[in-house]
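BUG: 3D viewer hangs when loading the predicted structure for this chain

Environment: internal workstation, default settings.
Expected: structure renders.
Actual: progress bar stalls at 90%.

Input used:
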Amino acid sequence: MAQLLQAIDEAVAYIRTRTDLVPQYGIILGTGLGNLAKELDIVAQFSYRALPHFPISTVESHSGRLLLGYLGGKPVMVMQGRFHYYEGYTLQEVTFPVRVMRSLGVERLIVSNAAGSVSPHIRTGSLMIIEDHINLLGKSPLMGKNYDELGPRFPDMSQPYDSIMIAIAERIAQERGYFVHKGVYAAVPGPNLETKAEYTYLHRIGADAVGMSTVPEIIVGVHSGMRTFALSAITDDGYPPQRVKPVSLEDVVRVANYLEPQMTDIIKGIIEQLD
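Structure tokens produced before the viewer hung:
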């Protein structure tokens, strides 16, 4: 763990050789949601392969680039593609970029993902603002020795998602006529999708959507003192059981691509409207 502090410093130092921009917002783009990068006024960009200590994204729908620039007139740092526990990385490796974001100056973290619905009221092709989550990964990215430089030993998680950013997102969605819900996101290890019985279980324990990411990054964001927001593109139905159909990655990406302009609009609007 002591090596983590050095790794963060080395990654930050490398980025600083290319730009002195201090990002206010960190954005993590999920499956099929990488085109927000087209809205950026890019100052510097890096392949994950070039960055010291960064994992490499192995998922074909993730571009694997780190971008620094401006969105909505505000300085941002954007991950175009993320890392997952199912790729074989530890949760500390999955969340390493969030540590780097914070060290570079990021104060607010915005995360997007593609998820399956486990609510009868939330259907494929809609968006869900995450207002709480359930960690079913079996581990926390905060396990191990804690360092006060990174955050407290026992961070409070009673309100992990920022109410102000949620309110702005709801207002934008209402003004634009987008189908947006609020709900609870459950994170599972993956990479397999769920059985009908597992979808039903997730519904019964209080989840509204399920995916394989986001929660580790949010936990580390909260641990490091960031205000956090997350938004899911609902790409398939898991409940009730009669709605469940076979789903491929291509299906997920197709729906995520359809919803991407709405997600981009909401994320950009949040950044524009916050001080």
